[in-house]
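Help!! Second protein's tokens look totally different from the first
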Amino acid sequence: MNTKIFTICTNYIGFNWSTDGTSTEFSAITSPEMSRNVSKMISYIVVAAFGIPGNVLTIIVLLSARHLRMKPVNLFMVHQSFIDLIVCCMVILQEIFFRMNQVPEGLSQVIYCRLWMTKYVVFVPLYTSTYNLVFLTLERHLAITNPLRYNQEKVLHRLPYVFASCWILCGTILAFTPSTTILRDGKCLLIYELLAIPRLQRIVIPYIAIMAVLLPTAIMLIAYIRMGIALQKSMTNLNMSSDKKNNTHVEKSRQAQINLFQTCLLMVILFVLSWVAVETIMAPYIFGYVKSLSNDYYNVAILIAISNSCFNPYVYTIRYNEFKKQLAVLLNRARHLKSTPAITTTTSRF
């Protein structure tokens, strides 16, 4: 029996499966394996929990001021944080609820088996985060390379459709995932006989790699190269201009564009680095150079991929000037509100 795809899926899904495709009970796991599974669970929960406050803070900061809400790029960042927040919460819930006997019998178990145990509910938002980053890049590309055609109001009106398209696209890309498991006699079975077909193996795994990593990376790489060239040309033209008053205004606007460009570029770099780890480990296994993915290196790679949903708020805090200014405003308000009751109480004694 060809078990390569079966092993890939069981490791990628993150559950222990016996040879008949059923989920392994804790009692059947050896002590070292139990310790490894507990360590993995704790690591996943800690990394995911680390991303929750940062993403919540990003949403609050960018929605707290009207001038920030009116910029499409900021709404893309809000959507990015919302998606990443869902990823972090789903990862934690996946590590807590992972046994079939935790779900009532009937339709609930079917849904649990096909959507939950395949991690469809985790990977759809994870890939949606990727494509939201792609659309954010395209929005920045239009604003920088073609400023005369860029209409902020029109872009704002289109954003709900763009966000919905991200979710629909990624749900469609992974539409085959729920069909990889089946509920039988109260057990969730992985259909490894189907997945072990060599021809299907050569199609499915490259398909995921292309749609989830390579295609988005290629689009963003080309867009950022073009944006970098456009910004360089505009800076050259600005330096050659003799209108000093107009130059000052244009220079400030251009510096803001460059700051935003650098912030978004850093987000893309972190995305690429986080997914390279997964693809680097998966590739040798698919081509037969590595016999098993049941090791700590694979879990570290998946943790890095998940941690991509935690990084962006810290990128904004370090690099995005408008975010830093609004965060400082909110912190000052919080200090003022905290100190006001103390002043009132002191005054009332006299």
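Here's the second one for comparison:
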Amino acid sequence: MSHFSKPIRFIDQFLSHFQLLFSDTQMNILRQMIYAMFFDYKRLSLSAIAKRTHIDYQKLQYFFSESDWSVDQLNDVRLKILQNQHTTRSTSKGVMAIDDTSVPKPYAEKTEGAQFQYCGALGRQENCNVAVASCFVSNSKHFPVNFKPYIPVNGAPPESFKSKIDLAKDLILDAIDKQIAFSTIVFDAWYTSSELIEFIASKNLSLIAELKINRSIRFTHPQTKQWRNLRADQIIPLIKQFYPHKLKSVNIPQNNGKTKSVLTYAFQSTLKSIDASACLIPAARIPATVSISKAPLMICGITKKLFHPVKCSRFTTRGRGSKESSRRRLGNGFNFKGICQ
């Protein structure tokens, strides 16, 4: 290689798995691209890589935009390599995370898919590329499974248009089709929609997801003992007022080595307009000594049955029967007690 004194054996061994997907010319460019990724760049771009590798920029541009090779086939081989290794394959001790990611393109005028839309990387509207991605995550490993580009449309969408929820469903089916093992699907409040929840329930899968604070939830009022549909921000003050003795303070380890004290209260309920039941936990993202009145709700499991233990590798469930209490453990020291009704 022009930028290495000699080829690196483990890189070439890895790239040999993809040989059948590319012509000799394509494979040569791919190999040089991979080698070039080991260098630091002030701004990673094709022009910067072209200067480092001494490859003609137009050849790199053609390789990614016009050259005849399949991204899906390349990804299939990549996943096969991961699944064939004991140390890297997916297991039922992990979860499937769904989320969208964005790449700012403020000066791009002709980049395919780049449009003015919300950019999560910047936290504002910006010209960017957006994709919905799936990722396997466990305590010991994580790797991307697949991604689907999201292209917004102005005006009435065509029949071929797919929303982020549609793309999320496609990614879930794709992971099942590729036999990616996982225990639970996880995503944030933006994806917690009736459409996606019912889709996951129809596949007999479990989920862990945040719930928007304004979502209507069936809740038995502590005074009247009658159920009604209440917003999450209406339920949390009731829990604080009538069930403070049932709040569980748990410590969650943080990446910086510290722990955060969080208050939790678990109950089984249903969400308005969804034909499924869920185990809900109002969980404060603030120190336990502070009011939980602004805490979000998190769905810890959902099923079309009256009750079903959460199928998450980080949970351990004890107790049988629909009226027994179940004690579960999440992660390192995340304990709460839920009553099955």
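Reply: Different proteins will give different token patterns, so don't panic. Residues 283-296, 300-341 have pLDDT under 50 and may be disordered.
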